[in-house]
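Q: How would the structure tokens look for this protein?
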Amino acid sequence: MIRVLHVLCDLSGGGAERLVLGLCREGLVHQEVATVHAQPDDLAEDYRRAGVRVHRGARARGTSGFAAILELTRLAHGFDIVHTHLFAGDTWGRPAARIARKPVVTTEHNLNRDENATRTWIKRGMASSSDRLVYVSEAARRYAEAHEHIHHPHAVVIPNGIDLARFSRPSTGPATRLLAIGRDVPQKGFDVLVRALPAGTHLRIAGRSTHRGVRTVAVPGGTATVDWLGPRDDIPDLLADSDILVVPSRWEGFGLAALEGMTAGVPVVASNVDGLAELIGDAGVLVPKDDPDALRDALVRLLADAPERARLADAGRARAALFSLAACARRYAALYAELAPTATPW
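A: Here is the predicted structure in token form.
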């Protein structure tokens, strides 16, 4: 069986970490995980329950990565493929794999519109050290080629996938419950969402944030409540108890949270950007980014229109079926087999 070492920054609850966890659960190849940093570790228990061996890094952020390269090189000798993810995983995992003379797969999970020129220069310089460069959407590939000037001869697009069976329970109850999922960073646009809330609604935000607890906010026509939940491992349950999933991102390489909402049959209102628009198509409501008035108007209309919510729920489920984790895992397994032809893929 092909042996793959995934190199991640950490085990935080982002899309890359959740995708790797899903690939490991599928079990088409032998997979272990190495992290550059020990913290945050929001998904550590999920990896443990899935039986995934995790080699925890201890590099302090902002310090030299040579010790990380040495440790990752030592680990890489025991694997057929090194698969790197995100900036720290790519930066320290790729040279380690090359030293160990192992093929490298790199997945680009985002559009990185907030990266500085130095990081972009590093990414462009290291791109050729990957044997395969995987983008999670055509939008992500177009952005890398147009803005980062990365033109890889073996670039491919493999859309993310999720376990469709985990998100199957319908939402019930009064139509006032909004949900947002993700880290509280500028990319996710939660500041816009809070300003866009219709009066009388209740918004829950699941993900790492400096905020915590329930707050009442003044909005046009009255007040709304915002409940900062922090990191959660019960996203299917939260979706089943929500009327609308809101994804107000300023940019997205893919939009895993939107896919989870569509799979669960929760209508999605999202920013009309990048991979997010590519994923949703006409199976959700798309609004201009950074426009709280347009976002509020869309939420008001959809909350008042039960038939439209039902239509979008059906459309979302149908479109989400195209993005199964099983199909995603098979494509990665086939890619690994191209690079390690002497090993048995499964």
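The chain has 13 helices and 14 strands.

The chain has a mean pLDDT of 93.

Upvote if useful.
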